[in-house]
Amino acid sequence: MFAQHFPVLPIVLPLIGAPVCMLLARSQLAWLFATLISGFSFFISIVLLLTTLDQGVLSYALGGWEPPWGIEMRVDVANALVLSVVTGLSTLVLVYAKQSIDKEIDRNQHTLFYTAHLLCLAGLSGILSTGDAFNLFVFLEISSLATYTLVSLASDRRALTAAFRYLVMGTIGATFILIGVGMMYMKTGTLNMLDLAARIAEYDSNRTLNTGLAFILIGVSIKLALFPLHMWLPPAYTHAPSAVSAFLAGTATKVAVYVMVRFIFTIYGAEYVFHEMGMDVILLVLAIVAIFNCSFVATVQSNVKTMLAYSSVAQIGYMILGISLVTSAGLMAGLLHIFNHALMKGALFMAVGAVLFRTGSADIKAYYGLGKRMPLTMAAFTIAGLSIIGVPLTAGFVSKWYLVTAALEQQHWLIAFLILTGSLLAIVYIGRVLEVAYFKEPADPTDTTIKEAPVLMLIPMWILVLANIYFGIDTSLSVSAADAASKWLFQPAADLGAVR
Amino acid sequence: MISSLPFLPPFLPLLLGSIAAIFLRGHLRSVVMLLTPVWGALQLASLEPGIYWTIEFLGYHLEPVRADKLSMMFGYLFHLAAFIAVVYALHLKDTVQHVAGLSYAASAVGAVFAGDLLTLFVFWELLALTSVFLIWARRTDRAYRSGMRYIIIKVLSGVLLLAGATIFVKQTGSARFAEIGLGHDGILNLGTWLIFLAFGIKCAFPFMHNWLTDAYPEATPTGTIFLASFTTKVAVYALARGFPGEELLVWIGVTMACFPIFYAVIENDLRRVLAYSMINQVGFMVVGVGIGTSLALNGAVAHAFNDVIFKGLLMMTMGAVLHMTGRINGSELGGLYKTMPKTTILCIVGAASISAFPLFSGFVSKSMIMSAAVAEGYDIVWLALLFAAAGVFHHAGIKIPYFAFFAHDSGIRTTEPPKNMLTAMAIAALLCIVIGTFPAQTVYALLPWEVDYQPYDVTHVLTQLQLLFFSALAFVWLNLKNLYPPELPSTNLDSDWFYRKLAPGFMVPIYYSITEAMNRLERLSKVGVRRLINSSYDNEKEQPKGYFARLWPIETMVFWVALLLAGILILYYI
Questions:
Q1: Which of residues 206-225 of A touch B (CB under 8 A)?
Q2: A282 contacts B568? CB cut-off 8 A
Q3: Three-state SS across B93-125?
Q4: Residue pLDDT, tens place only, B44-86
Q5: For residue B504, is the peptide bond before it cis, meaning its omega torsion is within 30 degrees of 0?
Q6: Which pLDDT belongs to residue B495?
Q7: What residues of A are in contact with residue B565 (Cβ under 8 Å)?
Q8: For residues B416 and B336, what is the distance between their CA atoms, to the nearest angstrom?
């Protein structure tokens, strides 16, 4: 049966596709091939999501070696949801990239871009579906190395230093995760996540395990750009090619959030990490500071890409905030925001990339009077921006709604208030761009070279924009998946082992 | 037959009309825009009271369309207002104004038919977003900035409403928009107060009213007609639905009815005078809602109905003056009755209505509120409202027509406004008289609550006539004695008269000191924000600065990693 191999296909397809892409050597061919591969992975992810919503967990023993000795792929609702986001966004970005990278990446490096993109996709899918802690680290490294390459591909030379900073920080993060996993292995002798969960539950606060937890949490926090470990992210997203920023902003850090959820909820157990180790307060404080500090810093940026990058860090704050509420509703709001944030940030970065394509600049000065010259692009920016702010009838509203509800459910009305005032800062930074685009005259009114972006860039951008509106109105799919995922994660870790 | 058409949401005809206005041009657009309010009103007539479709959203039942007598009355009113405003704006070629005007009317209709708080919130925000374009359409720098302030305050109101609604829905478990009331316990209390404040901002409660007097006079001559008709009336509707009989509202309403009079008297821009008088009229309605008996509530909504028409009429005449002469300051106008006799007569009809002359529309609704106040034993309120009524007569009934059309001859020679403007004003004037003369057959027939009320009895008519005559006498006397110098309209001389004659002399200093305190607070917060921005943005290099905005070198990043790791490890060790 072919269908039984579905859990591993989103990893294997791009992993094999990457070298093929390299061999194809022609930009057009590589583009077509990579898009097909990514599209097929997306299709499989959707099938997986529907299957898991229906049947629960899918377990796949790699190479026929039974877990816990062999490597296990476990697809449940939580990772199938994120997996669909990642593969879906990857496909749209690849469609978009064909013209976008023309101006941002050297022509003879185009195949390299597609190769690295597929490798990154393989790594991210691997992180999501693996059930093995060490295997997770391996996939993390695959995706990270591919990401450093992607960032450095930009013809802008500043991208090199940005990529280097990213590399140093990313490697520190990965090393910390490896150290943590090593400590867990030292104490328990196993690497399978469920096995780990069952054995860790037997120890009552062991110092080695706690140190492992600290290393893992810090390592993952670097990867997901939690304030104040986020400083690698803004330059990387600013100088990377727009297609890369659009892909990474919606996926890479979000996958890291998922990793954090996995380690906390599945392996160590929420009760232990939050209540006994007091991580909820730490994460809560950092999340709120992230929301306010980074939203504020975003408001004073003159480069729109940097602004969006800081906004991403702030949005990650919302996700972590949801998780740190330590309720099923909070976790669900966090997971839902992973989904919705990919939709809005993807669309925003694509719009910025389209402007960069036409004007050659991401500076806010390039946006003067763009509302008339690139009406479709700026309309997309506006709607996605409204979604970031959290205006009703957009996806952003739904996440904020659940987040506020989750906070109120715990009588944390101060937190609810902070969430809402955080949105006011988003109004400021999005509003700045809209103001110059719609109410200022262009610097050079005679310049006729600036016109609407090419169709191939507009289509994926508008698919995301429409998705923002669709998932703002019909929330049944996103909410039920996030809800099922959070409920599933919230059962005590020991029970998960017992299921098997 | 139109009535046999399948059910449409009430706001849809107007919305479709506004969409059509984007694409159509010329006469076809005029015809379509005239027909949409008519179509909408006919559609409304076929709407049976009840709840139309429920939607499941975020786990709550939403009722986007709920029709009962209260919402029906406002629905008719808004269609009527939209029709008059469209006629008035027919000569324009400005697509932005046409589209914004109709979609603004559609949002207002949507808001009064919203059966739940979330739908209400959506239309609440749409009201703000569509109306601001009517201000920006003036296309001056002042109008742009004024519109910006307007939209910020409106969005703030929306955010408060959403926050309050979230708490309310969460605590009560139902999203339905029915009576909310104040004075609950715990977090629910906070929620209801937030909703109350959100309504209050739109309703121009004292100290939240500045957006109105700031923005309305900056809008285009035609845009102001739309603006004056919808936003505050939606807020009155929301208060009548959510907080009927809340005693606090009586006192807020009295304040609203009284304080704008001082400002209206010293104001020179005649459209701003009308904006102040609008707050004053809304004050009457808020008092009615606050008293909360069926007579008072009926009075409030009836007054809202009439106010849209007569305030619209006055705004239209001033708009016509502005349109024809390009001036609107009282000190620059005068003597226009020679060249604009029809406009003059129409303005006087509007002035008579707002001053509540018997046989004009203001009389039949204002007297309801006054009677309700007496019936419920609010004697002081009644006195204050009497004072407010005299003030209205003075500033809106006499000052507006007198300075614009009579007074000294300013030498301006112009002509009557375009035909469509005259027609719109004539329709409104006719309605003022018809409603004032035959209230039982017109506005009373639409009233949501059962009540038997007869405005034309000896006491009412006599009291009102006395009040009006003595106010007029005072004005004439002051004018003859040259105590009312029209050339110096901005000083305290006008209001001096009021607070010497009419006692609340202590009020004005209090207002001034509060205004001063508010100004100081505003200055302080501005300085604070500017300091914050200066510390994080380098204006000369045009780039951000500050610890968190500049690029950290790698060692700094690693330092933070080490710090955090050490912190957590120490925490775990303990």
A1: 207, 210-211, 213-215, 217-218, 221-222
A2: yes
A3: CCHHHHHHHHHHHHHHHHHHCCCEHHHHHHHHH
A4: 888 887 777 777 776 778 888 888 888 889 999 999 999 999 9
A5: no
A6: 37
A7: 176, 214-215, 218
A8: 10
Using the 8-state DSSP alphabet, how is residue B314 labeled?
H
- Name residue A36's amino acid: L
pLDDT at A84 over 80: yes
In chain A, how many domains are there?
1
The token pair that represents A22 in the structure block:
């390299």
Q: Render B232-266 in DSSP notation, one character per residue.
A: HHHHHHHHHHH-TT-HHHHHHHHHHHHHHHHHHHH
**Which residues 167-186 of A have a C-beta within 8 angstroms of B?**
168-169, 172, 176
Per-residue confidence (pLDDT) for residue A463, from 0 to 100: 92
Chain A residues lying within 8 Å of B122, measured CB to CB: 392-393
Q: Is the pTM of this model over 0.95?
A: no
Q: Are A239 and A162 in contact (CB under 8 A)?
A: yes
B493 pLDDT higher than 80 = no
Domain extent, residue A397, equals 3-499
Question: Which residues from chain B sit within 8 angstroms of residue A401, using beta carbons?
Answer: 58, 166
Maximum C-alpha span of chain A: 73
Task: Output the six-digit token pair for B213.
Answer: 């007097």
Q: Which helix (H) or strand (E) holds A253?
A: helix A242-261
* Closest chain B CA to residue A222: B561
Is there a contact between A117 and A17 (Cβ–Cβ < 8 Å)? no
Q: Which residues of A473-500 are buried (b: 16+ CB within 10 A; e: fewer)?
A: eebebbbebbbbbbebbeeebeebbeee
Task: Name the token pair of B347.
Answer: 């303005």
Please classify residue A46 by burial: count the beta carbons closer than 10 Å to its beta carbon, then call 0-12 exposed, 13-18 middle and 19+ buried: middle
- Which residue in B114, B108, B111, B161 sits closest to B131, CA to CA? B108
Cβ contact A276:A183 at 8 Å:
no
Asked whether the beta carbons of A315 and A388 are under 8 A apart, the reply is yes
**Minimal C-alpha gap between A297 and chain B (Å):** 6
Show contacts of A154-157: CB within 8 Å, 24+ apart.
A154/A104, A154/A105, A154/A239, A154/A240, A154/A241, A154/A244, A155/A104, A155/A105, A155/A106, A156/A104, A156/A239
- Yes or no: say if A386 and A396 are a contact pair by the CB < 8 Å rule: yes
What Å distances lie between residue B181 and A209, A266, B154, B239, CA to CA? 54, 46, 22, 10
Q: State the virtual CA torsion across A303, A304, A308, A314 in degrees, nearest 10.
A: 60
Determine, for residues B122 and A393 on separate chains, whether the beta-carbon distance falls below 8 Å.
Answer: yes
Task: Say how many CA atoms lie within 13 Å of B458 toward its Cβ.
Answer: 0
A479: chain B residues, CB-CB within 8 Å:
58
